[in-house]
Amino acid sequence: MKISGVRYTQGENVFMAFNYAFLALMALICLYPMLYVVFASLSNNNLLMQHTGALLKPLGFSVAAYNRVFKNPMILLGYRNTLFVLIAGVLVSLFMTSLGAYVLSRKQVLFKKPIMMAITFTMFFSGGMIPAYLNLRDLHLTNTLWGLIIPGAISTYNMIILRTSFQSIPDSLTEAAIIDGAGHIRILFSIVLPLSKAILAVMILYYGIGIWNAWFWASAILRQRELYPLQVVLREILLQNSAIEMSTGIDPGDQDSIAATIKYATIVVATVPILCIYPFLQKYFARGVMIGGVKE
């Protein structure tokens, strides 16, 4: 075997072939659960209920489950609410996290270590669910989408990663900017952030996935259904479908029942949009994680 002018021995060829086969098997293991969900969501409910073993293609192509999901008028409303919380939440979180990380990355900050210890303490201990809810209620953040954004504006873990990345920027750049008369806000937005695009992409991915998948606090503090994000709407669809079939005694194999496929359709509806974002951030992801590795 010869690649780019390099000749490999027979043992190296066998080793490379084994590596390729092993990596292909691992890729298949990782991809198959997602393919199974897609195939099941496009299958006929009767055939799916009777099927056992691996699922390698849709069984009797049917989009009945997707029709049932998208006929719900709350789906588009849920998408709208989720997109608002996602965009506003990521912007607010990036802004607040960047400010906190920049301050903690400066060497001359007074009492930096005690402040850092107090912030790190919150990663392991919190006031609990009930005090958090009472706090949101007293701040008039219940039954509002801002109640899903403001409480999670800063993740301690993400701020530590971002702070470590900021510390890797050469001090000569910021010192030169200070000599030229730049303030900390100008240094942050004109020097530090433009040099941290990779780690910021990681932060967008972390915050975005967390916001997209969040449903518990939305179901706890929102009372108006018009404010429900997508995850709560999809959960409601699943619960309603299960409740109807249990109360009416519908056989899961009946033509009108799509309980087996609707749950897979809801998973696809909730997952595909966030998966579409990842390819645009993937090229920054590995580099950003390495840059933001926690080190002292």
Describe this structure in words.
The protein has 296 residues and is an all-alpha fold. It has a single domain (63-291), classed as MetI-like (MetI-like fold). It has 13 helices and 2 strands. It has helices spanning 10-41, 45-50, 64-71, 74-105, 112-121, 129-138, 156-167, 171-179, 184-192, 197-213, 216-221, 230-248, 259-291, and strands at residues 2-3, 6-7. It has a two-stranded antiparallel ribbon. Strand 1 (2-3) and strand 2 (6-7) form a beta hairpin. Helix 4 (74-105) packs across helix 10 (197-213), helix 7 (156-167) packs antiparallel against helix 10 and helix 12 packs antiparallel against helix 13 (259-291). The two termini are 44 Å apart. The model is unreliable at 252-256 and 292-296 (pLDDT under 50).
Fold blueprint:
Blueprint: E1 2-3, E2 6-7, H1 10-41, H2 45-50, H3 64-71, H4 74-105, H5 112-121, H6 129-138, H7 156-167, H8 171-179, H9 184-192, H10 197-213, H11 216-221, H12 230-248, H13 259-291
Antiparallel strand pairs: 1-2
Helix pairs in contact: 1-13, 3-13, 4-7, 4-10, 4-12, 7-10, 8-9, 10-13, 12-13
